[in-house]
Design brief:
The chain has 17 helices and 17 strands. By secondary structure, the chain is α/β, with parallel strands linked by helices. Strands 3-2-4-5-6 form a five-stranded parallel sheet, sandwiched between helices. A five-stranded mixed sheet has the order 7-8-9-11-10. Strands 13-14-15-17-16 form a five-stranded mixed β-barrel. Strand 10 and strand 11 form a beta hairpin. The longest helix is centred in the middle third of the chain and has 36 residues. It is globular and about 75 Å long. The two termini are 19 Å apart. The model has no long low-confidence stretch (mean pLDDT 93).
């Protein structure tokens, strides 16, 4: 689908500090930064933990468990947020002196997401005194009931949206429960787990627990918190930006754990120059690969490793799984594209929604496939893969203007027989349906999307920060941009636009286009466009190209040079 390159409107930036570069001031203003204190990424600016509903109940449970040295079981999730949340509590609670700690992550393929009834039976057989959920639990009504009926206490930490009913847990710490006043509704599961530890430290300090010992330095966990926050693609509001900034600062200064060091090495990144996008595109996929293809315990083991050689061995296994995941995904993409090609829709005839099912598709990769198709066609997408007992599992990705979880809830209300279970966020969700209901679900889903999406929502627009002045087209300004982050979801990395003269073009790595471009200043600059249509490029007749691009610094054999990363590449007649 052809994307429209549109410059953002100019915003009033007079409220921002004058010492900032004028272009960066405008970039901040266009991202709704309204106060100078929103640019302060010091730890002191983090929201107060006391704003969480049930935080006092949660710390009481933990204090009692600490004094009794109760048996604690942390129940995680099989994605990167779940893995980092689990590792954060495993290491964080140990800092306080908890000894009887263990964790359990449901198998994606046999048990599915969260504390399900099947997982609950397994938990009961393990006989813990206290179960703590991380990155799940808010929708696990039946599973938590089974655990509670067995006399086990349950502390839920989660960030997913609550449904009509809350589980019968002893405490529920979740910013998205309806009665919670914590301002950062977009905090990730790992962030909630981190805040629980902050609250516990405060409660123990008030109780005099640290009179004989030093309180733990919880900042040691911020590298994991930052990785999980970016990996879960939550909105980088001011609070999340602070968590990510602090974690990145620790990694860049060498204060990180062996597991993250090993992931950085295997991804060929430079720890001293690591950025938030490296978390999202290099580290998180390797961590996620364990949960997608094998067992997320491998990813958690990497994060918990205390020895660099052990961490490197596990990171190597994760890297191999990630290569396997890519191969599976590429095969599924080709199959999905063949289905879409049969429908033969053009940019003008793209359906309002995409809903596909194939029994032999891999459950662990359907979310990525849904995301790829959503990006390509700019339409809400659901991809189903085969499951067990006549059920199939789906992964959904949405676009701005359509809240995916709300839409599934509406379908569930109107057609109670259609969806067995569902959960998620505005932009991503998961569900299970009976295979025989697929055609009906597809029809109802497409109709529901059509009723909600406006023509404006369906336009695929790349918003840019306009054209750069000649003096900003430099390594110095590119460095300023990197320092102005962290950039991420709903706080997007700056994208600029310009029409360049095309000097050279060639395909590298079978699907990427390497370019040499001439700027209007006469300067030659390298650019790369990832995943281009090799049927259209290289184009020997094109003399000029319009680019929506990110200003980047390429590092090769210790040398640094300006490089453009093309977000959209269009021939100019």
């Amino acid at each position: 689908m052809k994307k429209l390159i549109v410059a953002r409107d100019h915003h009033d930036d007079s409220h921002l500090p004058n010492h900032l570069h004028p272009v960066i001031k405008q970039i901040y203003a266009s991202r709704q930064v309204n106060h100078a204190n929103e640019l302060d990424n010091s730890a002191a600016t983090l929201h107060n933990f006391k704003l969480f509903k049930d935080i006092d109940k949660a710390t009481e449970l933990l204090q009692h468990a600490l004094h009794a040295q109760s048996k604690i079981l942390i129940v995680g999730d099989f994605d990167a947020d779940g893995a980092t949340s689990t590792a954060t509590l495993m290491q964080g609670l140990a800092m306080f002196g908890f000894i009887n700690l263990d964790y359990l992550v449901p198998d994606r393929f046999s048990l599915g997401y969260g504390l399900s009834p099947a997982l609950a039976e397994q938990i009961v057989s393990m006989a813990p005194d206290l179960v703590i959920t991380v990155d799940n639990g808010i929708s696990c009504i039946a599973g938590i009931a089974i655990v509670k009926d067995a006399g086990i206490k349950v502390l839920v930490t989660d960030h997913h949206l609550q449904g009509e009913q809350l589980p019968n847990a002893d405490a529920i710490v979740n910013p998205n429960r309806h009665d919670c006043d914590f301002p950062s509704k977009s905090i990730a599961g790992v962030g909630v787990a981190f805040y629980l530890l902050i609250a516990l430290r405060s409660a123990l300090r008030d109780a005099g627990y640290f009179e004989q010992q030093s309180p733990p330095n919880l900042a040691d966990l911020l590298d994991i918190v930052a990785l999980g926050t970016v990996a879960d693609v939550v909105a980088l509001d001011a609070n999340n930006r602070t968590l990510v900034h602090q974690g990145l600062a620790r990694i860049r200064s060498g204060k990180t754990r062996p597991g993250i060091t090993a992931l950085i090495e295997v991804a060929n990144r430079n720890a001293a120059r690591l950025s938030a996008s490296d978390f999202g595109f290099s580290l998180a996929p390797r961590l996620n690969a364990a949960g997608r293809l094998d067992d997320m315990s491998l990813g958690i083991a990497c994060l918990l490793a205390t020895d660099i050689n052990q961490a490197r061995r596990i990171a190597g296994e994760l890297d191999s799984l990630n290569h396997e995941r890519r191969e599976i995904e590429q095969g599924m993409q080709l199959e999905a594209q063949a289905v879409l090609d049969k429908l033969a829709f053009s940019d003008e005839q793209t359906p309002d929604a995409i809903c596909l099912y194939q029994g032999d598709w891999h459950q662990g990769v359907i979310g990525i496939l849904a995301g790829r198709l959503k990006e390509k066609y700019h339409r809400p997408t659901v991809i189903f893969a085969g499951g067990d007992n006549g059920e199939i599992k789906g992964s959904c990705r949405s676009i701005e203007g359509l809240h995916m979880r709300d839409l599934l809830e509406r379908l569930n209300t109107l057609h109670p027989h259609l969806i067995s279970k569902f959960g998620g966020h505005a932009m991503a969700a998961g569900l299970t349906i009976n295979e025989q209901h697929f055609s009906e679900f597809k029809r109802e889903f497409e109709m529901a999307v059509s009723a909600q999406l406006s023509e404006e929502h369906k336009r695929c627009i790349i918003l840019t920060d306009g054209e750069l002045t000649d003096d900003c087209f430099s390594m110095e300004f590119a460095n300023l941009l990197k320092q102005a982050g962290p950039w991420g979801q709903q706080f997007p990395e700056p994208v600029f636009e310009h029409t360049f003269e095309l000097v050279q073009q060639r395909i590298v790595g079978e699907k990427h286009l390497k370019l040499v471009l001439k700027h209007r200043s006469g300067r030659l600059v390298d650019a790369i466009a990832f995943g281009v249509d090799v049927r259209a490029w290289p184009d020997t007749e094109a003399r000029f190209v319009k680019l929506a691009y990110q200003l980047d610094i390429n590092e090769f054999r210790g040398k640094f040079s300006l490089q453009l990363i093309a977000r959209e590449l269009q021939k100019v007649p």
